[in-house]
Amino acid sequence: MQRAGSMMSHLGSCLQALPSALRRSLSSAQDVLRRTPLYDFHLAHGGKMVAFAGWNLPVQYRDSHVDSHLHTRRHCSLFDVSHMLQTKIFGHDRVKLMESLVVGDIAELKPNQGTLSLFTNEAGGILDDLIVTNTSEGHLYVVSNAGCWEKDLTLMQDKVRELQNMGNDVGLEVMDNALLALQGPTAAQVLQAGVADDLRKLPFMTSAVMEVFGVSGCRVTRCGYTGEDGVEISVLAAEAVRLATALLENPEVKLAGLAARDSLRLEAGLCLYGNDIDEHTTPVEGSLSWTLGAVTSGCPSPCLKKNVAMGYVPCEYSRPGTLLLVEVRRKQQMAMVSKMPFVPTNYYTLK
């Protein structure tokens, strides 16, 4: 079907147990795979390693994908997301640089406040999604996707050189920190035991540098990719295993891998770059404001015990409750358009 509108419709369909977006992203034929600082840690804890976006990462551990998914919704799970690209943008003109590349008002961010944004091309297509934080330390902290690592880095480096040649004060540093995501309704309770800062004062999309279970210099950001309350912790690579081990000492915490991360984000209605959005999708079409006749991500929902999916359809078929036929493995299945998210999100905001 041709692109026909500006609203993302979400379809129920019959799909394999492993999320479809993850199946398409896994690679089995890459020559050189990068390893995170937690690679040996994953193996020691029964991690089943797979190739993903050029990295060797755990798809799951000894628990099943569904058990890990449900544990995250009911307790909390620890994810290794160190494959994400972490960069610092510094200099007097750092905001000018970032606003020349992304959709969003970076200048209005308060100290230690972050925002979800998008790199876009000249036609308005989405090059990647990212989080930009205006740190109180005088730089922008940027986290973007591993699958777009080279593209994003080249984009930023080229713009740095362009602005520097024009006399602007701006620079870029690639961070080699590990990145751990603690996600779930008890994540804050678990983390509070290891920090002096009052996490009740750290709402969604804000961050602070603090000592975490004896590991100094950690940047803790209240965000995540599961729809649950939680944090992402940027930590020195040499301290990553120590921190992960400390977090796992709490029985609330279990390790989770790529499979659970993908089904959790799908239930929460969060897009995966390369599947649900790409260079041929504009922010308005991506519902980021979210139509094509195609399913872009789908899986059985462990929480709802139904099959769910994201996809694009013409606007005239986008009203919630509309019945559609979806082709799955050359068979037609009935699907119903529904509102997102499939499972309510539980982000922590100040009351």
TrEMBL record:
The keyword Iron does not apply. Residues 38-292 form the GCVT N-terminal domain. Its EC number is 2.1.2.10. One of its GO terms (cellular component) is mitochondrion. The glycine cleavage system is composed of four proteins: P, T, L and H. PANTHER family: AMINOMETHYLTRANSFERASE, AMINOMETHYLTRANSFERASE, MITOCHONDRIAL. The glycine cleavage system catalyzes the degradation of glycine. This is Aminomethyltransferase.
